[in-house]
Write a structure and sequence with these properties.
Elements: H1 3-13, H2 18-25, H3 29-37, H4 44-54, H5 58-62, H6 64-70, E1 73-75, E2 80-83, E3 88-90, H7 91-108
Antiparallel strand pairs: 1-2, 2-3
């Protein structure tokens, strides 16, 4: 999974449109879409701004292991995620899991 895909998944979970994020970044929707598709790799300052808009740590956007686990899920308009076993998990719990996984991965290195 690439960074663009991570950004897209988080944006979708937050129910933000590409237009919204693009406007926040001062980009056209088409230019922003290239970031999500992986056609364009954002520089670190732009990545930091995307993380701020999406209210996540920049390391979350870069971490592929966490997303493989977390995003075997589908977002629902209710603001909840239903994973493959159909348990409902609040987004704040997902954020906590992501932070803990990142901390664990950092400690392992």
């Amino acid at each position: 999974m690439n960074v663009g895909n991570n950004i897209k998944k988080i944006r979708e979970l937050k129910n933000y449109s590409q237009d919204f994020v693009a406007q926040e970044l001062g980009l056209s929707q088409a230019t922003y879409a290239r970031i999500e598709s992986g056609e364009s790799i954002p520089k670190i300052d732009r990545l930091q701004r995307i993380a701020e808009i999406l209210d996540v740590d920049i390391s979350t956007l870069l971490n592929t292991n966490v997303f493989h686990f977390i995003f075997n899920a589908s977002a629902h308009q209710s603001g909840y995620i239903h994973n493959q076993t159909n348990h409902t998990v609040e987004i704040e719990m997902i954020r906590k899991i992501i932070r803990e996984e990142i901390k664990n991965l950092t400690e392992i290195k």
